Amino acid sequence: MKTHAVGIIMNGVTGRMGTNQHLVRSILAIREQGGIPVSDGEVIMPEPILVGRNESKLAKLSAAHGDLPYSTDVDTLLKDAKYPVYFDAQTTLRRHADVKKAIAAGKHVYCEKPVATTSAEGLDLYQAAKKAGVKHGVVQDKLWLPGLLKLKYLIDTGFFGEILSVRGEFGYWVFTGEHQRAQRPSWNYRKADGGGIMLDMFCHWRYVIDNLFGNVTAVSALGATHIKRRWDENNQPYDCDTDDSAYGTFTTDQNIVCQFNSSWCTRVRRDDLVTFHVDGSKGSAVAGLRECWIQPDASTPKPVWNPDIENPIDFRAGWEKLPSNTVYDNAFKVQWELFLRHVVLDEPFRWDLKEGAKGVQLAELGLLSWKERRWVDVPAL
């Protein structure tokens, strides 16, 4: 058996996303399956080292997963040839400086989004990586969700005819922390710490729209801080000074109108925490995280407006759920495998730092649109 061992510096992995999606469900899952198969008798095997600022948290995480190596000294690790890949899942404010340091050390870099707090910093990382000749990528996990893969299948097979519009609904009620512990960290609601849902979610919506519905050409957005006071991890109250909800409308070069609502202040009454409703001339579809429902033109009901009687149509009954004709792996794990194949085998990987910068650009322009209360064009980067 030929094994391509790839050492990975996993910085910021003690956080919720870093632990669950990147370490446990991606890197450790790849190791448990025996690596990434390349050919008969040949695999790529990730060799992670856990990195962060809190040694106690690192020690507990290490012990919980087979005594993985860990360190608080990222600078020394960046000099270690055993670890050619640097991964960053820290808070957004720390990402630009540390990723750039890794690039300067000659490491291939893979990081969470947002890649930076400004598009200029995002482009700076892209240009630095390109100049250094290192491989680079940004997490764009939603592209490999089963629901969106089914949606892409419908697009590729012409189910919709002409796509007219898309409506995305994302969010759930995040408790304030006063009476029930909040599900999200307190820094999400402080501007100085890199918080704000527009910066977070518009990065997602950029790659979803660009990859499925055409390149984003313009944005009109409105943000809001609906809840002004929350309680932090130490049960101390604090003032929220950045947006916890964002309402965006986007146009694309395929003349498709996309409306996406993002909120941590909404109670869910829909099929999933995120849904994408696509209307086309020949049919419509609604995709969630894993499932996708369709209604072709031939089975579309014909409602008539009459508020004086109970509606005779069961609108939900008129939708058919697409079957799962394949086995879907964890979306984060799928992209990790593609990136590691890119590093070892030089296979194509188009989800690079420039794509990450585009996400930050859309968030910036959304914030500008909110501030100036107008449509803003999205120039090419």
Can you walk through the features of this model?
It is a single chain. This protein has 381 residues and is of the alpha/beta class. The protein folds into two domains: 2-141 and 331-350, 3-Layer(aba) Sandwich (Rossmann fold); 142-329 and 361-372, 2-Layer Sandwich (Dihydrodipicolinate Reductase, domain 2), CATH 3.30.360. The protein is 32% helix and 25% strand. The protein contains nine helices and 18 strands. A nine-stranded mixed sheet has the order 17-16-15-14-8-13-12-9-18. Strands 1, 2, 3, 4, 5, 6 and 7 form a seven-stranded mixed sheet that branches. A hairpin with a 4-residue loop joins strand 12 and strand 13. Helix 1 packs across helix 8 (331-345), helix 4 (92-104) runs parallel beside helix 5 and helix 7 (197-212) packs across helix 9. It is globular and about 70 Å long. The mean pLDDT is 97.
| Spatial strand sequence of the major β-sheet | 17-16-15-14-8-13-12-9-18
Oligomer: single chain
CATH homolog superfamily of the largest domain: Dihydrodipicolinate Reductase, domain 2
Catalogue the unreliable spans.
Answer: none
Category by helix and strand content? alpha/beta
Question: What sequence of helices (H) and strands (E) makes up the elements?
Answer: EHEEHEHEHEHEHEHEEEEEEEEEHHE
CATH topology of the largest domain: Dihydrodipicolinate Reductase, domain 2
**The biggest beta sheet, please?**
9 strands, mixed
**First-last Cα distance:** 44 Å
Rg on CA atoms, Å = 22 Å
The portion of residues forming beta strands comes to: 25-35%
Number of helices: 9
Shape: globular
Helix content: 25-40%
* The level-1 CATH class of the largest domain: Alpha Beta
Corresponding CATH architecture of the largest domain: 2-Layer Sandwich
The structural domain count equals 2
Q: What does the average pLDDT come to?
A: 97
